[in-house]
Amino acid sequence: MEHTIKLFLKLGSEENILDLFENGTIYMNTIEYFRKVEDQELRGDKYEGVSRVINSLPGTFKIPGIDREFNYIKIHLTEAHKEVIGNIYSLYAISSKGFPNPLDFAFDKNNLRFGTHCLVIKDLPLFFKKIEKELKNNNYKFRHGFVDYYNKDEVNRKITLFEKPLEFEYQKEFRFYVEDYGMKPIKIQIGSIEKYAEIFKIEDILEFKLVPNEI
To answer: Number of structural domains, the chain?
Structure first.
């Protein structure tokens, strides 16, 4: 299903938001960073890069050499490569996927933990074009799309790099994924975006509402 994106929001410190606004600095951290950082499940997600989630039904098992059956209520397992290759750039998307009726947009207070400032990006085609051009100029393979959210305690299947546990759904993420093998952050610059973006204090977004002529 095709979804329409109305606006992108980028959340962060005043320094980083100004750098994006004035210089177009796009900083893409590694998946390994997001897997290991400890920040009360804000940017950090130990399920980032997981390739499969297994939730078994209740059952029994035997241990070799012991003539006895053991019961278990449920088993929860994850599979992942030792190191997951690639870098991610995340944006908050006000879209028909996250908000079927954009007039119902509401900014979850959990997002306030991302920093002090928010950049509202208005010209999405131009923003996309500039990022894609710079990635191609650097010979990076990449793809982008919405993040889907799943219940990690119920699913029993493969997981893609564009899926995250349901508790992160409030972040309404759209991400760029770069297939890089350097295991280091990537930084590109797309030039000033001042003509098609606007800076706000992050708490001001709590009062942000779309009006009909913005839809």
So the answer is: 1
